[in-house]
């Protein structure tokens, strides 16, 4: 693992930002302090961080209904994210997007998406734009195993393949499409096998190993930037919580849950950093404390932020061009 110390420590920090942010979100939601719906990213931190650590600010991502981790890994600010979940005017989308629709085009975050499989064609469109504009920007499309059964999966990947678009399709295979296990909704064991149909590389990696994710995405991004077209990377991982907060998860065997939690990504990576003598345990503890403090400050920022004004309800909904046509 020949990687720079700063990169390794930054990946640890980012995973902890996601873990601590999400842990507090689940608690705040249970207390009734956050409105709307929440899908936790707990347990899948290595996929987002390993992927986005390869990206530039000008690169794009399309996210999912379980998108908090993607946004943090891509550079999303905790204050604005927390405020958005609280529905406050200081949030990324002025409180109108909530948990499933956060976006920040300036960071290349084209939006979390509540529609399963909704990101494939958006990613292909972003990739086409980069190619036509002769930019070396890459788009990453995050999706789950269930979304790989949607028609948009075929449409988006096929188009990206035919036109050699700079898109990396990243499947976060957490083994369940809502409450249905993968073995019951797909005959194949590896979603990456489907890459053959599009004539592109398909790779399956341990999604709980942030270094393995980083290395596989690094190759796919390099291929995309050089004009060689898209890749399909499948990361096998597992969500610690239910499909949504409040889900009783009685469809998952307790033994299975405990086996996967024993392989959770942050503890594994922390152990590896200590074994490699990248840093002392005190340094990692200091990162944990700093991140915890940042998250608590983000909660305070959100709770002290104003609610959107009533007259803003229809603002930012239609473009000026549409409004001019209607007037």
TrEMBL record:
SUPFAM superfamilies noted in UniProt: Thiamin diphosphate-binding fold (THDP-binding)
Keywords per UniProt: Oxidoreductase, Pyruvate, Thiamine pyrophosphate
Record Gene3D superfamilies: 3.40.50.970
GO molecular function: pyruvate dehydrogenase (acetyl-transferring) activity
Cofactor(s) essential for the protein: thiamine diphosphate
A single GO BP: pyruvate decarboxylation to acetyl-CoA
Superkingdom of the source species: Bacteria
UniProt domain Dehydrogenase E1 component: residue ranges: 13-310
Keyword Zinc-finger carried by entry: no
Name of the protein described by the UniProt record: Pyruvate dehydrogenase E1 component alpha subunit
Origin species: Tindallia californiensis
